[in-house]
Predict the structure.
Amino acid sequence: MKLGSRKLARTLLAATALAATPACEEGTGGPLPLSGFTDAMIAGFCDFFTRCGGSSGDLLFLTGGGNAAQCRDRLRRAIAAGGDVEPPTVQWEAAVARGTATWNGQLASDCMGWMGSVACDDMESGAFELAHPECQSILQGSVAAGAACHIDDECSNGWCDDSAACPGVCVAFVAAGAACDGSSARCGPGLECSPETSRCAAIVPETIAQRGQACDDELGPYCSYGLYCGADGTCQNTVATGASCATAPDSCAPGSFCLPSDGVCHQPVMATAAGVECGEAILTFCDPLANLTCDNATGRCVALPAAGQPCADYQCAIGNYCDGFLDGTCQARQPTGATCDSDRMCQTDHCEGGRCVSAADACGSADLF
């Protein structure tokens, strides 16, 4: 499996999923079967994300304001609901069945040992990827450039171009020093397309600033996990939930936010019942897995619209999609084989050649979100 941009989300799926069991020494764990990858991904993703996920909206969605166990439950429910959250397991199993890729279960097991106690900063900076590049090859493709493919992971030394048709065609990676653009000309493993030169260059881990060191939330360097970039441009300790943040709204510890009304750090709340007061101003949000959304007019959680009802800010109840943007109507997602013109119309979230197809027959690598 080949990784792309150097951000936290880049490695969560590829590497964190391998940390699904307690840390082990290299080579001492048994092989991880591909059939067990989804459960491993859920456990590893949630364990890492609750430890190092920060204060993003994704953390609230995944945990519902709870812990790793609640995160695992919510992620399983989100995957079962179909559509927006999809693990890559089905596509990988299809590639193995086609004979276009091989799953390395022992390598996956070995990577668990390295991932069990990985530092949050090493994941954020890209240092883990550079230290253990072999963990990017737990699924190894065997398709040569110019041959047919469905997903990037099937290509032995390149990526799958499905822009014209599905199946697509494997395209070779661009070598170090060669011209690149990040789309049709992509750099190989360990390389990135330099924004300054538009040529492939070695990936350099991002600098992570420690307490007292200079920082910049926009351009970097970014502060180490558990620190924030203060008004003086240096990294400072965060403050706990319940502490004052009146003079430094960004100072709340990961998972908490500064409430302007009282200048105190609070953990957000995920409401699971209709009628509950909601909104960013009070840090109360409505659970989409409970088919709820916050109605701006009333400031209360209301049910997401079902098929045949007007969309709510382009949102519909689970199992439906919005057929327009400003004045759309919710429609039921279509089964495999039905006609479509976009992924959102299909129960599988895959529309190929004007028809809804299964994930196994789809092109384009699945993203967790």
Remarks:
- Confidence is low (pLDDT under 50) at residues 1-28.
- DSSP finds eight helices and 21 strands in the chain.
- The CA atoms of residues 231 and 248 lie 8 Å apart.
